[in-house]
Amino acid sequence: MSSMEEVMIHSSSFLLPSIPADKASAYAIVVLNQNLPRFTPLLWEHAKLRLCADGGANRIYDELPLFFPHEDALLIRNRYKPDVIKGDMDSIRPDVLNFYVSLGTKVIDESHDQDTTDLDKCILFIRDSTLNQESCRLQILATGALGGRFDHEAGNLNVLYRYPDTRIILLSDDCLIQLLPKTHRHEIRVQPSLQGPHCGLIPIGAPSAKTTTTGLQWDLNNTEMRFGGLVSTSNMVKGEKITVESDSDLLWTISIKKQDSTRP
Amino acid sequence: MNVNTKSLSVSHRLQPAMEVMSHSSSFLLPAGETSAKRYALIVLNQNIPCFTPLLWEHAKLRLCADGGANRIYDELPLFFPREDALLIRNRYKPDVIKGDMDSIRPDVLRFYLSLGTKVIDESHDQDTTDLDKCILFIRDSPLNQESSKLQILATGALGGRFDHEAGNLNVLYRYPDTRITLLSDDCLIQLLPKTHRHEIHIQPSLLGPHCGLIPIGAPSAKTTTTGLQWDLTDTEMRFGGLVSTSNLVKGEKITVESDSDLLWTISIKKQDPNKTLRSG
Hints:
2 copies of one chain form a homodimer.
Chain A: E1 7-11, E2 27-31, H1 40-46, E3 49-53, H2 56-63, H3 73-79, E4 84-87, H4 94-103, E5 106-109, H5 118-128, E6 139-143, H6 150-162, E7 168-171, E8 175-180, E9 185-189, E10 195-202, E11 208-214, E12 223-225, E13 232-236, E14 241-246, E15 250-256
Parallel strand pairs in A: 1-9, 2-3, 2-6, 3-4, 4-5, 6-7
Antiparallel strand pairs in A: 7-8, 8-15, 9-14, 10-13, 10-15, 11-12, 11-14
């Protein structure tokens, strides 16, 4: 393993009630078409840019008011207004579309483009956005990328591999997933009140001849991992810092703790 | 024309006389139609798909992996809202509950024990997943014969924690000689080993049209298909590049040939619940 490799630091500060103001923490949120995780209001509030991928707009419209049962649904819908709705528009309901158009949400109909997924389309929008600067790159948090049809899920995992220079985190109620590119050594900072202990390192796409970790219950030591053999699942984090070094791109996944679901 | 002939002869050179492996999902057919293949059912700890009662009734062997027993206990009666829950629980009794027992509720465990379910506590074994443990039980069962192997259907293997899901996908790769199908309300997943050419038979009333071929463990230099909207012809697939997702089946027979193990996935159509729940 080369000690000349640059270190890539990963933190999940976006899960904290108040987010640090540093540039590294700035993010855009993309909402895809699955049930909203319970921490969506928190992520929404601190986002620099808020997109719904097609039917993700139905989810924001229908499900966000459910997080605030004592408040008027229309007020909540006005408050949680996407900046952009983008995609091939085959899932968004007409009433939902009309509502957000009337609020001034930018709607980008890409139904002519059947070659890229709705998540792809949103990522490209974010990358081209003036809010995404060389000096201050936006990381991308996506909810609703997991579950449902497995080919959709696999396509969304592939998005992580196809944009290795963009920090993209897939989030569900149960876990988060991020790519650890082989080009870097990785330091993962865990928030123990919010994350873990369950975790895994998954060699999706290609086997790994040698992976080495620190900070896990079952650390790897130049260990081979591959589908058909060993894959690090049902592992556990031991502390607040995990390091990973590998000859292959890996997916890192860690569980998200069930929280008290009061509003942020 | 010349290009087609050329790619055909290249394929034949690469895989001279490969055996055909045939796949069908007859286990999803409504009651009254015979299922060609005998199967065992494993229920893992996620929401039960709506066709679970159908799968349960025609299974040769019924296992719950640890907390899967909670799901059978809690959720099966919900499919029969007009019937007494206790009657349903008695009717849908697992043959075996196996696993490390850290998820099953004590009341659920006691209930099935009193009904005679065999409970195998493997909490000492932390090296294998609950799904592994159940597969090993099925493989060793006298119902699983050389002459007539049981295929395995597993519900609840997808969703929830991604490391669990990845571990369950890895199970397909680690038992390539056993036919294992992972099922959810939305889709099914099966391994297509590179050692065979594959013929997949679709029941269009039950499956599709959405499908995909996923090179999860390793890239594929050459995959060739027929029967898909976007067929592959000696096409390379890999994570970071092309993966066949949001594809569509065109007819009732798909063929796949690849130099790499692939996961095949196809969507399951939403059914009329009344149609699938009646037993024969």
